[in-house]
């Protein structure tokens, strides 16, 4: 799933390639992905893209007084093309969900695609990004100046959730998902199951520092890469997430996994839990 670093890189790439260019045609191809109908996608045609920004994991392309907002969900992506096919795309069962063709240079534009059978990609055309429910309920952005150590500590105070779940909650902190929460907690040497309210001042400071360094490092690694290379760069840069059974790059212990209904977390016992494996709750239920 694209998270803050990948969406930030997409934002910067699109800002360089679309700002100042006008929209020739918009082809919505996946009805399930289009979450708004007024204004229609065609209302973007003839308008000039003025900016590309990010709200958590949401892309926001502003054209005139309209905003094309995209949430890539688990398997969505943006693909740039200097020369899109001349023929309009046809709706079908393929991954193409939306095509935006620009007027200058003729034929350039981008596709929004979604792989797999579970379709959660979301596309909105709105006059105000706050009209998108997912944006309206976002918490603070960890790259913003307002995300200070004091602000972060305030988010954790009296919160009885496990720190892993809190980091992933978009209404608490915008942009961090399953992968980077694993990476942040590994860097901070913190158990994903520790309760936020029970963290010491030192532990809170370690997690705050790990958020900044982990996200900044991921963005730096992606700087200047073509869109097609961002996914592979993310995977290659992860130290524990998705690396069950591999040695920890810090201590050499075997990376372990805890599975849930639709996701899994990975961690290093030596670095994060005092050498003790965490209980895999899904397996525990199966063994009862």
Work out the radius of gyration: 20 Å
**In the CATH scheme, what's the topology name of the largest domain?**
Helicase, Ruva Protein, domain 3
- How many helices? 9
Poorly predicted runs: 283-288
Helix and strand string, N-terminal first?
Answer: HEEEEEEEEHHHHHHEEHH
Total count of strands: 10
* Total domain count: 2
Going across the major beta sheet, what is the strand order? 1-6-7-5
Backbone structural class: alpha+beta
Mean pLDDT: 93
Can you describe what's shown?
By secondary structure, the protein is an alpha+beta fold. The protein is about 30% helix and about 20% strand. It has helices at about 5-20, 135, 150-155, 165-170, 180-185, 200-220, 225-235, 270, 280-285, and strands at about 25-30, 50-55, 60-65, 65-70, 75-80, 95-100, 110-115, 120-125, 255-260, 265. The strands form three sheets. A four-stranded antiparallel sheet has the order 1-6-7-5, with no helix packed on it. It has a four-stranded antiparallel sheet with strand order 2-3-4-8, with helices on one face. It has a two-stranded antiparallel ribbon with strand order 9-10.
Short description:
30% of the residues lie in helices and 20% in strands. It is α+β, with helices and mostly antiparallel strands and 288 residues long. The protein has two domains: 133 residues, MutM-like, N-terminal (N-terminal domain of MutM-like DNA repair proteins); 139 residues, Helicase, Ruva Protein, domain 3.
């Amino acid at each position: 799933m694209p998270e803050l670093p990948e969406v930030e890189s997409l934002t910067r790439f699109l800002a360089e390639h679309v700002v100042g260019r006008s929209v020739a045609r918009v082809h919505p191809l996946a009805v399930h992905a289009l979450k708004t109908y007024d204004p229609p996608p065609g209302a973007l045609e003839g308008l000039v893209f003025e900016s590309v920004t990010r709200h958590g994991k949401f892309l926001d392309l502003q054209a005139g007084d309209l905003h094309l907002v995209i949430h890539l969900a688990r398997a969505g992506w943006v693909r740039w093309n200097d020369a899109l096919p001349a023929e309009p795309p046809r709706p079908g069962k393929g991954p193409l969900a939306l095509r935006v063709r620009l007027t200058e240079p003729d034929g350039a534009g981008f596709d929004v695609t979604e792989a797999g059978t579970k379709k959660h990609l979301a596309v909105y055309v709105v006059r105000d990004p706050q009209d998108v429910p997912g944006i309206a309920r976002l918490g603070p952005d960890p790259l913003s100046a307002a995300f200070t150590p004091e602000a972060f500590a305030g988010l954790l105070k009296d919160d009885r959730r496990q720190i892993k779940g809190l980091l992933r909650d978009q209404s608490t902190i915008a942009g961090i998902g399953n992968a980077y929460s694993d990476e942040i907690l590994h860097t901070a040497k913190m158990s994903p199951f520790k309760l936020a309210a029970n963290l010491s001042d030192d532990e809170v400071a370690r997690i705050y520092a790990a958020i900044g360094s982990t996200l900044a490092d991921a963005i730096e690694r992606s700087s200047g890469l073509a869109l097609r290379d961002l996914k592979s760069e993310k995977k290659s840069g992860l130290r524990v997430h998705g690396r069950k059974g591999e040695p920890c790059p810090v201590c050499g212990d075997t990376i372990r996994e805890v599975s849930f209904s639709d996701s899994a977390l990975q961690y290093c016992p030596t670095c994060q839990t005092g050498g003790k494996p965490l209980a895999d709750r899904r397996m525990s239920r199966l063994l009862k």
